[in-house]
Design a protein that fits this description.
Length: about 220
């Protein structure tokens, strides 16, 4: 059972999300929060049990989603799926820097929302198809020039390249291990090496780098 925390300052949005997410047998919405500060308290409250994924709005009264995502990352908390209207590119990149594991538009289908929640909860990353072109455009203009100074795709070993491609397909660490017939600890070691060589902080950054380098297609 995947335990989900929904964070949005609009109650109607939270209720709608719960109806979508909670309709699946393997997904259980265990708590709501109206801003980032409340989300942190919910995650910290042991009486709520383990939370596997946080679905986080960006713009909220009180602590916003970017700051809350950053603090959850610093606390080694559950992965965050950012729920956004994507009005401004810098908001998305702020969330990437904060450590968000996925991004989905509020206009997404219920099916995509469910898939995104499952993917992020199990260690994968998710980029909404409608978001990807704008992410790549921003990456070309602002991220790639500085990244090229410290990293090169051709520094990856053949196995690290395989792991990066699997990450770009949204596979979790366990799924990558099963596909490559290696242990999860080995996959994690390869991922750490990939982050270092590409000069990125997290899976989302590595996946965007793979798209830009032409190793993967959205």
């Amino acid at each position: 059972m995947i335990r989900v925390l929904l964070v949005d300052d609009q109650e109607l949005i939270r209720i709608g999300l719960e109806r979508i997410v909670g309709s699946e047998d393997d997904l259980n919405v265990v708590a709501h929060a109206s801003d980032g500060a409340e989300a942190l308290r919910v995650v910290d409250d042991s009486t709520n049990g383990r939370i596997d994924v946080v679905v986080m709005d960006i713009r909220m009264r009180g602590m916003d989603g970017i700051e809350a995502t950053r603090r959850l990352r610093d606390l080694d908390g559950p992965p965050v799926l950012v729920l956004t209207t994507f009005d401004e590119d810098e908001v998305l990149w702020g969330a990437i820097d904060a450590g968000a594991a996925g991004f989905i538009l509020k206009e997404a289908t219920a099916e995509d929302m469910i898939r995104a929640v499952r993917t992020v909860a199990t260690g994968g990353s998710w980029l909404d198809p409608a978001v990807t072109p704008r992410v790549l455009e921003h990456h070309r203009a602002h991220v790639l020039p500085s990244a090229k100074n410290v990293a090169r795709i051709d520094e990856l070993t053949e196995r690290e390249n395989d792991v990066l491609l699997a990450m770009a397909r949204g596979l979790s660490n366990q799924e990558i291990a099963d596909e490559l017939f290696v242990g999860v600890a080995t996959v994690k070691s390869h991922i750490t090496a990939i982050f270092t060589k590409l000069g990125v902080r997290d899976r989302a950054g590595a996946i965007v780098y793979a798209y830009q380098a032409g190793l993967a297609s959205p």
